[in-house]
Amino acid sequence: MDYWKKISNYAHILYRILILLSFLDRIQSMKYDYVTFTSTIKLLNINSNTRLHSHDVKYGSGSGQQSVTAVRTADDHNSYWQIIPKHGETKSIERGQPVQCGDIIRLNHLSTKRNLHSHLFQSPLSNNQEVSAFGENGEGDTGDNWIVECDDEYWKRDEPIRLKHLDTNKYLHITGDTFGRPIHGQLEVCCYHIANQYNLWRVNEGVYTKPNEENNSNDNSHSEL
After folding, report:
1. Are strands 201-209 and 104-109 parallel, antiparallel or unpaired?
2. Is 216 helix (H, G, I), strand (E, B) or coil?
3. Sequential DSSP letters for 154-168
4. Which pairing describes strands 129-134 and 66-71: parallel, antiparallel, or unpaired?
5. What is the DSSP string of 62-81?
6. In whole angstroms, what is the distance from residue 135 CA to residue 112 CA?
7. Smallest Cα–Cα separation from 166: which of 119, 224, 213, 128?
8. pTM for this one?
9. What digits encode the pLDDT tens for the residues 70-103?
10. pLDDT tens digits, residue range 19-36?
């Protein structure tokens, strides 16, 4: 009797171990190294430790378009951007498709549905090239297109990148200049012609979309907030 009781206990322990291993395997499968199309991210400037940000506040000079700044606050909901295909894209881009180094993308501001944009206006503080948020519901122009510059085949989540503005060949950049009212303390974001440490960025918090082929579930997103 004791023999069969021990066998039963061992079987029960083995069952628990298998359940635990299955759970750990599921957690591991949720990890994904790459940034993908339709993911919603916060973009961190490595040098200044600030996040790319926008809001429904217009510039008082230059283009008068919606301002784009950088903030030190980690939990601001106005710092979320969705990665979408370039303006004028004709080929199909699958939801969750990894972004390749050299791909042209747009960043659509989640709260206001305007795209990260640049053009030949001067930025208000440093007199570099202005960066704004432009368009309505994701519809803008070629000034919304940015080239992802990175060192590998794909944009990795844990590695720095640069975003180069396609129309003007200048980099998304932070000088360290700060605004007064009504956006006191927020940093100016501009475009700059030289690649340096002030225009290195890394993805941070976000909701990342996994490729369809790596997930049999209908829900291919998971949160990394």
Report:
1. unpaired
2. coil
3. B-BTTS-BEEEETTT
4. antiparallel
5. TT--EEEEEES-SS-GGG-E
6. 10
7. 119
8. 0.81
9. 999 999 999 999 999 999 887 888 889 999 999 9
10. 554 444 443 434 678 999
